[in-house]
Design brief:
The chain is mainly alpha-helical. It contains nine helices and two strands.
Length: about 250
């Protein structure tokens, strides 16, 4: 056989490339028959062929022979399988354990506790005019722009907090077009509700329980000072509940 034909036969095997096929041919394996007769030891003597590759090549020639089936086995395969009879198992019903029913009184108590958790926040007693003005103030607040300091975007050292623009060359001071809005009297809310909380209460800062007694719970609400500790806060909240005074930062 020619060399090219032998190398083609060798490369048809798995794990054998052109380079390995030429190595096998150089080392005396000039046909597939000689390669079939070779052992693992013979192939490992060749440089570039390890034990795993040798076993893989020899294993391809030694394929397991197919077991011959008898005519009776073939006939049995063609016959339709007979359906197996279903064996009905008698299930003995066990007496079900009685579920422990909770008394209805406990369920009612749980509902009452859940209802007690949420309480509607107290609202002030306001006149009709004040209620209308609160709605107007809310609408004005929505369309009021954010007042930013002049040229806050230009330098990192300039903060955003509002300062009145000044200076001879200030364009914002002389109200040129395409400049940010300035703080003006036209942005103010109605006088009747000016300084009130969003709920409509007048805020009064307190620091102890004695100051709660001077608050009118109908129109005024308490705000606990930031310097007050936790122990005193709890006392103030308890006293406020007794006097029916709303605390804004509860």
């Amino acid at each position: 056989m020619a060399k090219d034909d032998v190398i083609k036969d060798f490369t048809s095997l798995k794990g054998v490339g052109k380079a390995k096929a030429e190595l096998l041919y150089k080392n005396g394996f000039n046909s597939l028959d000689k390669l079939k007769k070779a052992n693992v030891v013979d192939l490992t003597k060749i440089e570039g062929v390890n034990e795993t590759v040798a076993k893989n090549i020899i294993g391809q020639f030694k394929q397991p022979a197919k077991s011959k089936r008898t005519s009776t086995q073939k006939a049995a395969d063609k016959k339709p399988a007979t359906p197996k009879k279903k064996v009905e198992k008698k299930v003995t019903s066990k007496p079900e354990a009685k579920k422990e029913e909770k008394p209805k009184e406990e369920a009612v108590e749980v509902k009452e506790e859940e209802e007690e958790k949420y309480k509607v926040k107290k609202k002030p007693t306001l006149g009709k005019q004040q209620q209308e003005k609160l709605v107007i103030r809310k609408q004005i607040k929505k369309r009021t722009p954010e007042f930013l300091r002049e040229e806050w975007f230009r330098y990192k050292r300039v903060p955003k907090n509002w300062r009145r623009p000044d200076g001879i060359t200030s364009k914002m001071r002389i109200n040129l077009k395409y400049r940010p809005s300035k703080v003006r009297i036209g942005f103010r809310g109605p006088k009747e509700v000016r300084g009130l909380h969003a709920s409509g209460f007048e805020e009064i800062i307190i620091h102890n329980t004695n100051e709660l007694e001077h608050i009118d719970p109908k129109t005024q609400a308490a705000r606990i000072g930031g310097s007050v500790g936790t122990r005193k806060r709890i006392e103030i909240e308890k006293k406020a509940d007794e006097l029916e005074v709303r605390i804004l930062n509860r």
